[in-house]
Every structure is written in C-alpha cells, then in structure tokens.
Specification:
Chain lengths: 277, 275, 275
C-alpha cells in the first residue's frame, strides 16, 4: 500500500447523466401537472380526519348485528361467483395460455392469442360485466362469467410466462428421447409447471373474491350489491357490519389460500430435490 | 425422472421399491374441488344459478346490443376528453401520493429493515386490512362521506396502491440477501442509518417497478371509479349504459383500452431501462 | 477538481480512535438458542498492535469469536473488553459507539450491490454521524474526505461513483476494507476475508491487511481456514477446535502437528493456498 496522502485525495467528479436528469424533471412535471389539474379542493383534506372519525363511529361503535345472517349469505354468493369464475377462467386460460407460450405454439397462433389477452387485460371486469349482462341479465351468473372472461387477460399471461420460465432441461430430455408435442407438454412441461399453475389458480381465486364484491356494485348480486344499497340509504350501522364481514372473510380466504399455496410450492421444491439427488 | 433401460444389463428383474400411494391424496383434492364447485353452483344454498337457458332466450336482445357495440359512435369522443384527462390525473396523483407513503411503510413492513417484531406485525396487519377491502367499496363509502368528485377517487387509489406497493416491495426486501445489514451494524450504525444509505438503493428497482405497476392498475381502476361517483370517465360509462347507448359505450371502452395499452407499453419500456 | 475533497486535514494521517487497543476475552462461552455451544470458556489477550490469525475448521467457533468482539454476538457468560470498552456489558447507543471504533470485514464483503461505492464506504461513518444527517443524505465535508482517503488508500478511488455490484470480488473486498478504515478504527476484525477470492487476489488482500497493521499500528484479528496465509502474514496464531483454544503461539513456528491438533486430521493439499 502506498504512503497515505496528508490531504484528501482528488475524487473523480460525480457523474451526472443527462437522461436521468431529464427523466426526473419529466416525472416531476407530470405529477405536479396532475395535482394542479385535478378539480379537488385540497382544503377539504383537513376535514377528512374529522369525517373519518365521525363516520367510523357511526359504522363501528354499534354495528347492527341483526344483519349478520343476510350479510353472510350475500358474502357466500360473492364467494361462489369468485370460485366459479376462477374455475372457468383458469380452465380457459390454461387452454389458451399453453399454445401462447414460446416453444409450444407457432408464431401465427401466439401473436393473436397474446393480443387477445392484452385487450382483455385492458378492460375492467365491471365493463365486461356491463357488456355481457345484455345477454345474461343482472344475475350472479353474469358476475361469474365476467370474472372468468376478465381473468383470462392476466391469468393466460401468467400461464405462458410460467411455461416459458420453466427450466428447459426436462423438455429437452423428453424431446431427446423422441417425444412429440403432446408428449412434451404432458411429460416434459406439465410436471414442472403444474405446481406453480395450481398456486396461480388459487391466487386467481383470491383476486376474484375482491373483484366479485366490486361486481356487486353494478347490481349482479352478492355483498357488493348489499353494500351499495345500505350505503345509499346511509344505514351506517349496517354498512359497518358489511365492512367487517368483507375484511374478515377476505383475510381468512387469503390466509387459507396462502397456506395451501405455500404447501404446493414447498412440495414442488421437495420433489425437485428428490429428483436431483 | 426418466429411467435408463436396465433390462439389457441386468437379467433378473431389479428390486423395485414400492410405489408410494398418491391416488388417495389426488382423489381427496379432486373431491374437495368438486364439492366446492357443486356448493357454489347451488342457488338453493345461496350460490350462483348457472342459467344457460337465459342466454339462449336473451340472445337476440343481446346480439342486437352487441351489434351496436361493434359500430362505435365516434361522435361522443369530444365529450370524453375532459373525463379521460381527469381519470389520468387521478391515476398519477394516486400513484404519486402512495409512492411517497410507501417508502417508510415498506421499510417498516420488512424483516431486515425493521427488526422490531411487534411493530412490524402491527404495520403488516394494518396493511392486510387495507388490502382486504376492494377498491370500489372504498370509493362507494368515501363518496357517501366526502361527496361526489375526484377526491374520494384519489383517496381510494392511494389506499389501494399502498396495499399492493408496500406488500410487494417489503416482500422483495425480505427475500433479498441483506448481508450489508451486518456490515452496517458492525460499523455501529442505527437501523435508520442502514436503511437510508444501503437498504434504500438496494430496494430502488423493486420500488420503482411496483410504483409503475400501480400506475397501470390505477388507470384501469380510475376508469370505473366514476360508476360510483368518484370522478373520471366511469361517470360517462354509467351514463351511456343508463341510456342504452351501447354504440357510444364501445367508443369509451376502446378509448380506455388504447390508453391502458399505451401506459402499459411506456411502463414496460421504463422498467426495462431501470434494470 | 472537486473542491470539497481537497481540503487539507489538520490531523493529517488517518488518525485512529486513540492508538491501537488490546482485546481481552475472559472465560467467554457462547451458547446459541438452538443449544449449540460455539465457544467454550475462551480466555485470551491480544496485545495492542498485534496481528493475529485465528484458524480452525468451519464450525470451530472462529466466526462466533470475532463477532463477540464487536458485540454482534453476545456472550452467554464471560466478558469481552476492547480497549476502554467493556463490549459484553454495552447496549444500544454505547454499543454502537464501541462498534464504531472496531472495523470489520466479511467473507461475503457485505456490500449493498445497488448502492454506489461511496455510499457503501460511507457506512463506515455511521457511528460518527447523527441519524438525521444520514436520513437527509447529508455527509459533512470531513466525512466525505475521510471516505475518499480510505478509498484512495486501497486504490479504489477512481471507482467511487460506480455501483458496488459492478466490481470484481477483489475490488469489493477492497471497498469493504475502505468502509472499515473510514471508521478510523482502533481494532480491525476480519472474518474469512479471502475465502471467496482467487489465490492471487487473496494474497494481495492479506498484504493490504498486513500493511494496515504495520503502517497504522492497528490491532488486527483475522479468521482464516488456510494455514499458509496465517504463517505468511501474521505473527501469532490462535487455533480453535470445537469452540476451544487448542493452539496459541507464534504463527511461523507452528508445525504440521499443531495443525493436526487444530484440524483433527493430517494436513492435506487443500489446506494450502497456491501462490
């Protein structure tokens, strides 16, 4: 090591990248413009804490527990929508998502499929429900169908991404031993990706539980429907019960589904270890 | 996985270890799935009535409206600019406010950056509760509280974004190797010093990526917030639907679609460059 | 030229906290919560300015021992004293202050890969900076100058604005040494500093440590699992086996028989590091 300098050494100048500067100023301008453009009286925010306490008291100080059975029934209807929507959506997404994966389907099939997924992703489930209720009417079935179709957008994308990120070795091995496309999918791909796909399917259900409550707001039934009605009637003691039910049910389903998903993924890892040893 | 053919080598059949019985488990899983599906599809128990007959019956009616949707009425476009702009402004403002709030919350919700277990658990619990309430439910209640307009919409988006950004970023911190923490402690640093100087830059890419993702989701959500009176283009959707103007409705949907796809493309480019 | 960094320092040459300090372990036992006893009644004294190698197999307790010295691991019984600090008695702010006087470098470098080299080395100034300064990202000129000088002394100054993750293994360990030097430590601990490096780089990092010991008179404790390096660069060697001191004497005169006592098996080729 060299002798130590008495004075602080001359450090190289700190690099200032123009692109970063331009990007940060652009972001700042967009955000400030959006703040300024919104027709919001920010003074109102000062009243917000008071409002929250006021309505919070109305909702939760003395909830009307006599509404609990009806709330639970409507929640079950929402969960049913979520479940059937997830089931149908996952089946459709798997059928459409596998050929959309690179290395499985040909390009002329992959591109239109991916385009379709992107379009569905861009349309909110509520809008899908509004469109299909012209045929099916304002029923929970409409909600389930909207969830199924809306789910294809993201779920099919996850499906082909999972397949594409699967380690190629197993597929190669099946190909090398003379397997065709269907054998490759069944024996090369499926064993590797099925745990992750199962986990994603459960996750789809968790998302649907939330979305089904939203769909209720346009009138297809379930807890969301009930919530709109009582909010519009300003029966805050009932709204309080509904919110508590939504939170408890959603968190419980998340916890159960999450535990199952962890088990699925850990099982997959354990089996992977057995395979490699 | 693939067994080498052993028959040519060994004459006698090899000692095969007993095959583990997996079918009872598989059967059990299938049974649970089938029962759940049957229960959810039983209207008598409060489930969903799968009414395929209604589709057949309403088909002409529906086909008529879908036909209308296939011929978008572009004359509605000028009326959409202002609400569309408001939708985008709400999305940006919601993402910006939640991004600022998410920085300390993410650090508090992750194990390496917050060793105080009870505090961490409390932060996580509150966030889980926030995430358990669907976005439009917030909007509905907030509209009833503070009145119709963009403000309840923005608050809804902030609550929604904080839920996902903090969850995903804190999980990224949790799963990342945090060996630099030990170095910071060995140098006599406080937790906030370590967080500021090393954990923050370390988390930056995950953070930016999730904020961009929340912006994408915001555009989608703020498009429908107007359905319950929380501002943006959703108000027009509700209006057109009320007047059965399905040709105008499809114009608006197409417009949202284009904007969402554009934002997604821009965000993808940005996220790739950040990596 | 950056005027911030050219300011001459009155004290001149990298002052240590207050000259080198001795390190004393008195009957130290460490029992982990899972029941493993990592150190058994270890008593030893390292004189001020000594350069000592601690050798032993992995799991022999040498990592634990070095971590008890700066309080990253608290002894179950016994006491640890470093210069004026009774480390094993200290908590909170006092412990952080003591750690600030003890530099440490790690096998895995423990750098924040996405943070710049400068920020990583600034971690060494933590115990000298108030938390609010770090939070606002404001380092004083003196802190900056100290970091720059430390980086310069290990030849890493021109990389100061690079990301730590973009460096090679040897460069990372140099930055880690600069981080420890920025603390102006009185004692330097090194936990397997060369185990992740290729042989030529390992030798140059060991030479750096020896130079720090010689030129600044720092007390240096370095964990090694290779005997060659211990013989070549240190004056005294402490052998640990299953948490107990089995050898304590001059490094140069340690025989193969002594190594067998430490390793519990005859010396093999893999215990030596090629030149």
């Amino acid at each position: 090591m060299t002798a130590l300098a008495v004075r602080a050494p001359a450090a190289p100048p700190k690099p200032r990248r123009l692109a970063v500067k331009v990007a940060s100023w652009t972001v700042a301008a967009v955000v400030l413009g959006a703040f300024a453009g919104l027709d919001i009286d920010w003074e109102e925010l000062r009243e917000l804490p008071g409002d929250l306490v006021h309505y919070g008291t109305l909702m939760f100080s003395d909830p009307d527990w006599s509404m609990l059975p009806e709330a639970l029934l409507q929640t079950w209807r929402s969960v049913s929508m979520a479940w059937l929507g997830a089931l149908l959506g996952v089946v459709l997404s798997t059928l459409l998502g596998i050929p959309a994966a690179e290395g499985v389907g040909p390009l002329w099939l992959r591109l239109p499929l991916r385009g379709l997924f992107a379009v569905i992703r861009a349309v909110p489930e509520v809008v899908i429900a509004i469109i299909i209720l012209t045929v099916t009417g304002l029923t929970p079935f409409t909600g389930a169908l909207a969830l199924a179709i809306g789910g294809i957008g993201t779920h099919a994308k996850w499906t082909y991404e999972t397949i594409e990120s699967a380690p190629g070795g197993v597929v190669e091995a099946v190909r090398a031993s003379g397997g065709g496309l269907s054998e490759t999918v069944r024996w090369g791909l499926w064993p590797v990706v099925s745990p992750e796909l199962a986990s994603l399917a459960l996750y789809r259900f968790e998302i649907n539980v939330r979305t089904s409550a939203i769909l209720g707001l346009i009138g297809v039934g379930g807890i969301g429907d009930m919530l709109t009605t009582y909010t519009q009637h300003r029966q805050w003691d009932t709204v309080g019960v509904l919110i508590i039910v939504v939170i408890v049910v959603t968190m419980s389903i998340d916890a159960i589904s999450g535990a199952i998903r962890r088990r699925i993924m850990e099982g997959a890892k354990a089996r992977g270890v057995e395979r490699s040893s | 996985m693939t067994q080498a053919p052993a028959s040519s080598v060994a004459k006698a059949a090899p000692q095969v270890p007993p095959k583990p019985r997996t079918w009872p488990r598989t059967l059990g899983i299938v049974a649970v799935l089938a029962v759940l599906t049957a229960l959810t599809a039983t209207p008598a128990l409060g489930g969903v009535e799968i009414d395929l007959g209604a589709i057949a019956k309403n088909w002409t009616n529906g086909a008529d409206r879908i036909g209308k949707m296939l011929t978008p009425d572009l004359s509605v476009l000028p009326r959409t600019w202002q609400p569309l702009l408001e939708t985008l402004q709400m999305a940006v403002v919601g993402a910006a406010i939640s991004a600022a709030l998410a920085i300390p919350l993410s650090l508090w919700a992750a194990r390496p950056t917050n060793p105080n277990a009870p505090f961490r658990a409390a932060v996580r619990f509150v966030l889980n509760v926030i995430r358990a309430v669907p976005d439009l439910v917030y909007a509905t209640i907030l509209v009833a509280m503070v009145g119709v307009g963009a403000l309840p919409g923005v608050i809804t988006l902030v609550l929604f974004d904080i839920g996902i950004v903090v969850k995903l970023v804190s999980e990224a911190i949790d799963s990342a190797d945090a060996a630099y923490m030990e170095a910071g402690r060995a140098a006599g640093g406080t937790q906030s010093q370590i967080n500021r100087l090393t954990a923050l830059p370390q988390t930056w890419p995950a953070y930016v990526s999730q904020v961009m993702y929340s912006l994408e989701l915001n555009v989608r959500i703020s498009a429908i917030l107007g359905l319950v009176g929380a501002g943006g283009i959703g108000r027009l959707i509700d209006e057109m639907r009320g007047f059965y103007r399905y040709d105008a409705l499809s114009t608006i949907v197409l417009e949202i679609l284009i904007v969402v796809v554009l934002i997604e493309l821009a965000s993808n480019v940005l996220r790739k460059r950040l990596r | 030229m950056n005027d911030l960094t050219t300011r001459p320092e009155a004290e001149g040459d990298m002052p240590s906290a207050s000259g080198p300090w001795p390190v004393e372990l008195d009957d130290v036992t460490v029992r982990y919560p899972n029941g493993v006893v990592a150190l058994k009644n270890v008593s030893l004294t390292v004189g001020a300015g000594e350069m000592v190698a601690v050798v032993g197999l992995s799991g022999s307790g040498k990592s634990t021992m070095i971590r008890t010295i700066n309080g990253l691991v608290a002894p179950t019984s016994g006491s640890v004293r470093v210069g004026p600090h009774a480390v094993s008695e200290l908590r909170g702010r006092a412990l952080r202050h003591a750690r600030g006087d003890i530099g440490m470098i790690f096998q895995g470098f423990n750098l924040a890969d996405r943070a710049s080299v400068f920020h990583n080395a600034l971690v060494g100034r933590f115990s000298h900076m108030p938390t609010w300064r770090t939070t606002l990202g404001l380092a004083t000129e003196a802190d900056r100058a100290m970091v720059m000088r430390s980086l310069d002394s290990v030849g890493m100054l021109e990389k100061v604005w690079h990301r730590a993750g973009a460096l090679s293994g040897g460069q990372k360990q140099r930055v880690a040494i600069a981080r420890a030097l920025s603390q102006e430590p009185a004692v330097m601990l090194a936990d397997e500093p060369v185990a992740s490096l290729d042989p030529p780089t390992a030798h140059s990092v060991m030479a750096d440590l020896a130079a720090i010991n010689a030129s600044r008179g720092l007390t240096v404790l370095v964990n090694l699992h290779l005997m060659d390096l211990a013989r070549q660069y240190t004056t005294r060697m402490i052998g640990l086996r299953a948490g107990e001191v089995v050898y304590d004497g001059p490094a140069a005169s340690a025989t193969d028989a002594d190594f067998e006592a430490i390793y519990g098996r005859p010396v093999q080729a893999r215990d030596r590091l090629g030149e």
